[in-house]
Amino acid sequence: MSDIAIKVENLGKLYRLGEIGTGTLGQDLSRWWARTRGKEDPFATIGETNDRTKKGGSNYVWSLKDVNFEVKQGEVLGIIGRNGAGKSTLLKILSKVTGPSRGSIKINGRIASLLEVGTGFHPELTGRENVFLNGAILGMNKAEIQSKFDEIVDFSGVERYIDTPVKRYSSGMYVRLAFAVAAFLEPEILIVDEVLAVGDAEFQKKCLGRMKDVSRNDGRTILFVSHSMPALKNICTTGILMETGKVSFSGSADEVIDYYITNFLSFNTDTRIKITDKNREYDLLRQIEYDSIEFVNPVEKNMYSTEDDIAILITLKSKIDREDFRIAFSIFKMDESAVGTFFSQETLSIRKGETKDFVITLKDHQLAKGQYYLDFSVGIGNELIGATEYDVVTKTLFFEIAYKDTSKTQMMVLWHSGWGAVNFHNVDIKAI
Length: 432
What we know:
By secondary structure, this protein is an alpha+beta fold. It has 2 domains: about 70-265, Rossmann fold; about 270-430, Coagulation Factor XIII, Chain A, domain 1 (Distorted Sandwich). It is about 20% helix and about 35% strand. It has 8 helices and 23 strands. Helix 3 (about 125-135) crosses helix 4 (about 140-155), helix 4 packs across helix 5 (about 170-185) and helix 5 (about 170-185) packs parallel to helix 6 (about 200-215). Mean pLDDT is about 80; it is low at about 380-390 and about 405-420.
């Protein structure tokens, strides 16, 4: 096991639903008698798979069951899956926050965990005191911690507040200092949950760069849970997909992410969508707003060839008279990585109370083969966010770029591993 950092075998975690407690006195006695005879927990045999979408018949569920995997030293393992798949439970067991119900875990090295905001911090202690406390928990002496202290404070960006009790920190400041402690106090294994989503975009980018550095340059092992597919692709070398408490797929990070996108992310095949508040992530004034969006000319349903123009009919409604509004749209891959954004150069006009149609034609797009979706905005000016008069709608229409086989009448879908480039130099917008 010299090159193995973590080895998990037949890991399981059984939980009882409902109120806190182990159950009745009779159930506790049954468990005790089973343990005394070296038998399995009798309630484990009736435990059900942890599927949050279904109502079960038992009060016992397997949050994890028969989980097996290995992580080599220096690997960055991405753990993905839907909410309730068992990702956080797995990390808690590896971090020894809770114990397994069955199975074994072999760990080679010290572990630092960042599972939630303020993990391992005492709220009454200052930032400085918490740095030394966390270092001591990791088994480091005062001199070792002191040698890293300035780097930790500089990376976290909370120098002004380092002697302030952390109970007065914002959630973002908590995360900044907690991650800096975990990353710079040199544990052999770093475990990071989705907690980084709390930080701002600049700090998230900084953290991802740090994780990549400590893995590649220092040979440290990282387990990273995130719903951000671009972040996982950026730093992870291997991956596992969790589904209802089990590992359903494993492989390289790219293989696991592609499998997840293909089999688990919803690809809406509607060619027309009526816009509602469900499509809006921002509560804006919306003086001009989207009513509907529709594909005009797909070769097949939601499908285009690499040579086809893409024409989209948008219907707008207005509460004001405007002679100078603009339309913008962005194209994303299914892993939420942005391919490109277009802003109309010429201003458009609409009358108060009018419902007006516009056709957007994307010519010579140069999109790589794969699946995509569209976000749209409409408003006054050139900034997408920050102006309250904008209407921003997300994940509206989904479409696929496929290879056109001239020897057949049908479209053949060929996946492309590259990001692809999009050409926004030839976009036409016309009122109809």
